Amino acid sequence: MTITEPTSIWAATAALQLISVKDEPLQSYQHGQLTFELRTLDDSLWVIALLNKDARVAFRTAYSPNGFIGINVDKANERSITVKLRSAAGEYTVTVDMPDTEQPTLHYTASLITSNDLLMPFWPRDVIFYSANGLDTSGELFIKQVGTRSGLLYGAYKKPEAGSFLYLQNLTALGPYNEDTQTSAAEVVGGEWPELGLQLPAAASKPLKAGQEYVLSDAFITFSPEVPADQFAIAKGFLNALSSFICAVARTGDQVSGLFRDPT
Fold first, then answer.
1. In the chain, N or C terminus with fewer CB closer than 10 Å?
2. Do 134 and 3 form a contact (C-beta atoms < 8 A)?
3. Quick check: 128 and 58 in contact, CB under 8 A?
4. Are 181 and 203 in contact (CB under 8 A)?
């Protein structure tokens, strides 16, 4: 496996698993030229976007360090799927859907009902960009979260060239997690290529409460085949992606305003 950028051991391990997978996915979807696959690999439930014959991006929707005890596809149709996963930490519910939008759009939510008072000293980021050969990739971030502002990333996948993306995490939905663990949502969305996205703040001293349900992720991602060439193209691409994103949110029934206000 080829790795050309400094990366964490978690990303390197995940990439090796992702390029080696041979089993059939739990579910697959087609949206335009893109294919999305839902797969469980050891400690994570992934949604993998196949952008072209070389470029891939994987979204970690659920994570359990010791793996999952049981996995059950609760319901599925041509545009969405809900999966229940049991682990030592409790029961996860992950819902993945593909809103009917002009630009290919992915939406996933993940919640956990805790089995006991639970400390979470570390949580890996939820997005890994990789290729058919591993982590031999490069990209550029044009916009990212600053402070407690909206948890978004806008960037381009440049090697292999595979277009641009807008990622937005609903920080408002993470409020109960932040409240009970006494943590902040400041700059939880970010990272360094090829490992980006949400990293939940460490709950090292204040635990999640037993038997409570916590949203751990509520993410929207839109994809475009275009790689912006200059600042004007970046601005235009961002606004186009944002328009597609707002349409996607409206179709899910979520409140758009809650995604763009500072969490308290």
1. C
2. yes
3. yes
4. yes
Q: What's the length of the chain?
A: 264
C-alpha dihedral (202, 258, 110, 242), degrees to nearest 10 = -110
Least confident of 83-87, 147-151, 218-222, 232-236: 147-151
Q: Is the pLDDT of residue 31 over 80?
A: yes
**95 token code pair:** 């819902």
